[in-house]
Write a structure and sequence with these properties.
The protein is of the alpha/beta class. Helix content is 42%, strand content 22%.
């Protein structure tokens, strides 16, 4: 779910403004999975803009406080959630750790970098949610370490059926600053895309849901 409709539209416009999200219904992007997509997200770009990263940090903190998560620590998902999570932890004066996608194959073979404690209340920070697989793997790693994961906050979600079901099954509340529908609506409003483009983008998300 999104935190707030107004915040969702503002966030969407900021992401489009700095090309953290690019929409190209006619010249498709190739995702790492091989999928040909009219949308490409790299929310790490927001870190290069102080006013935008401040906006994201402040609203992540509002989400955490307004939902009563009361974390004792913040954890970021590698790699996109590391910097954002550290900023949130700093704002809240809390410990920070981050979670790798898998254990290291050398040294101490850690998957969680930083100190977490048994029964510690943790909120996880992520930049982008697609299917939710890697994000929930991080959640599970924290649970396996004995932590109480109160929820996850993220900048953007594609709002795929698969991810929504996965977060529900994992009993991990997910709250995002914006999502696919608000992004498309804002892009159309500011003239970034045409009405025909809107239909292409809606069809693309439908195809992803149909393929799950």
């Amino acid at each position: 779910m999104i935190y707030n409709k107004d915040i969702a539209l503002i966030t969407a416009e900021l992401l489009l403004k700095v090309n953290a999200v690019k929409l190209s219904p006619r010249e498709l992007f190739t995702w790492a999975s091989g999928i040909q997509s009219p949308i490409y997200c790299d929310n790490r770009i927001t870190l290069s803009y102080p006013e935008i990263r401040t906006f994201i940090r402040q609203n992540f903190v509002k989400v955490i406080e307004d939902n009563g998560f009361q974390p004792e620590a913040i954890a970021g998902v590698a790699t996109g959630g590391i910097a954002q999570g550290a900023l949130v932890a700093q704002e809240l004066g809390l410990p920070f750790a981050y979670v790798r996608t898998s254990r290291k194959d050398h040294g101490l073979t850690n998957q969680i970098e930083g100190e977490v404690r048994d029964r510690q209340r943790i909120v996880v920070v992520e930049d982008l949610i697609s299917t939710g697989g890697s994000s929930l793997a991080a959640v599970q790693a924290l649970k396996d370490a004995g932590c109480q994961v109160k929820g996850m906050v993220a900048i953007f979600t594609y709002s795929l059926t698969k991810s929504e079901k996965a977060f529900k099954t994992a009993e991990c509340p997910l709250i995002t600053l914006t999502d696919y529908d608000h992004l498309i609506a804002k892009a159309a409003e500011i003239g970034y895309i045409s009405e025909d483009d809107v239909q292409v983008l809606k069809a693309f998300r439908k195809s992803l849901n149909g393929a799950e």
